[in-house]
């Protein structure tokens, strides 16, 4: 790891491997297209990542939550610190997780249930918590619906029954889904240094499915199957969806969770909002029986585990670790 000498950038790693690659090949799924189920399955198999258009979520819903977040991130640092340190929930600055990962980022992390949204709103927006609370609630209910619709289309595309076999895991009242709002401030020092700085280091998401929306500032990169990194051009009116580790297990490795990362921008702020659709803590995760059985490639690749067990193990790991290796058969 190379560390920059500027004190503010102390302990934040450079990204040294990246030659900028323009990648026009990120699958774009039009939810109005009758063939989208097959295309979704293909995208999850090849990339574990795709962009969704014609999703039906009004752009105003995204813009008003983004405006609330920008209002908070524009506050003086000591005021923001009152909502932290994230452990893991609340306001966080540069530190990601508990095991030494650092990035050029500040963020708000909360559980996606009504109680946590309301409590977070009171610490984030003391003068007008109702506004923040309703912007998060409305946004999350739309995005959760989209995540469930995508999971149902995937079940149909995989020809597994019932249609809600995956979506019902997110619909559980006690689902452990979380919500994260990230702000990557511009980093002008980078212009003189001619290098890439880590915004959010490489990792796979532990949950089932992640739904990301960002403003029009680029920075997100995904790793392809050959190990190369490509940029996902930003698009504020679309959603970017990633396969998480649990969906990799549920599909017995047919879908792969995507390794991704964010690089800091020297000029522009990036704001992203991510819903991580997760099981309840007591949910048992194992390859679905319809995707396992006799014959080559059908043997179960993972042992059954409870989501709570996976989560405990994930929080002991570093961002870039392969968290699924403890659960392989
Ligand atoms: C990655 C995906 C989500 O942002 C997150 C992250 C979590 C955190 O920031 O607290 C983790 C990371 C994420 C995976 C490994 C552990 C936990 C930081 C970390 C080093 C909120 C999540 O669920 O897992």
UniProtKB/TrEMBL annotation:
Class in the EC hierarchy, top level: oxidoreductase
Superkingdom of source: Eukaryota
Enzyme Commission number(s): 1.14.11.13
Reactions catalysed according to its record: gibberellin A1 + 2-oxoglutarate + O2 = gibberellin A8 + succinate + CO2
Record-level Gene Ontology MF annotations: gibberellin 2-beta-dioxygenase activity; metal ion binding
Pfam families, per the entry: 2OG-FeII_Oxy, DIOX_N
Residues covered by the Fe2OG dioxygenase domain: 174-279
Record key words, sorted: Dioxygenase, Iron, Metal-binding, Oxidoreductase
Ranges that cross the membrane: none
Family classification: Belongs to the iron/ascorbate-dependent oxidoreductase family. GA2OX subfamily.
Designated name of the protein: gibberellin 2beta-dioxygenase
């Amino acid at each position: 790891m190379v560390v920059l000498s500027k004190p503010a950038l102390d302990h934040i790693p450079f990204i040294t491997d990246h030659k900028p690659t323009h990648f026009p090949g990120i699958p774009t799924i039009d939810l109005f297209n009758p063939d989208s189920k097959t295309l979704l399955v293909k995208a999850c198999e090849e990339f574990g990542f795709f962009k969704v258009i014609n999703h039906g979520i009004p752009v105003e819903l995204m813009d008003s939550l983004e405006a609330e977040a920008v209002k908070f991130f524009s506050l003086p640092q000591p005021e923001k610190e009152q909502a932290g340190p994230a452990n893991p929930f609340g306001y966080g600055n540069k530190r990601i997780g508990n095991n030494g990962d650092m990035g050029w980022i500040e963020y708000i992390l909360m559980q996606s249930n009504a109680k946590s949204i309301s409590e977070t709103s009171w610490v984030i927006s003391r003068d007008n918590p109702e506004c923040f609370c309703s912007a998060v609630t409305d946004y999350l209910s739309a995005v959760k619906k989209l995540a469930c619709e995508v999971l149902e289309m995937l079940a149909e595309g995989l020809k597994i029954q019932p249609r809600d076999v995956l979506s019902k895991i997110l619909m559980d009242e006690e689902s452990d889904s979380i919500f994260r709002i990230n702000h990557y401030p511009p980093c002008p020092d980078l212009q003189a240094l001619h290098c890439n700085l880590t915004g959010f280091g490489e990792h796979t998401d532990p949950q089932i499915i992640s739904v990301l929306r960002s403003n029009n500032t680029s920075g997100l990169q995904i790793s392809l199957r050959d190990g190369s990194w490509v940029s996902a051009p930003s698009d504020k009116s679309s959603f970017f969806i990633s396969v998480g580790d649990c969906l990799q297990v549920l599909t017995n490795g047919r879908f792969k969770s995507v390794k991704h990362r964010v690089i800091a921008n020297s000029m522009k702020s990036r704001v992203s909002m991510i819903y991580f659709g997760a099981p309840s803590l007591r949910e048992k995760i194992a390859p679905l029986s319809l995707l396992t059985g006799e014959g080559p490639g059908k043997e179960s690749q993972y042992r059954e585990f409870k989501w709570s067990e996976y989560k405990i193990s994930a929080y002991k790991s570093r961002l870039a670790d392969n968290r699924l290796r403890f659960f392989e058969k």
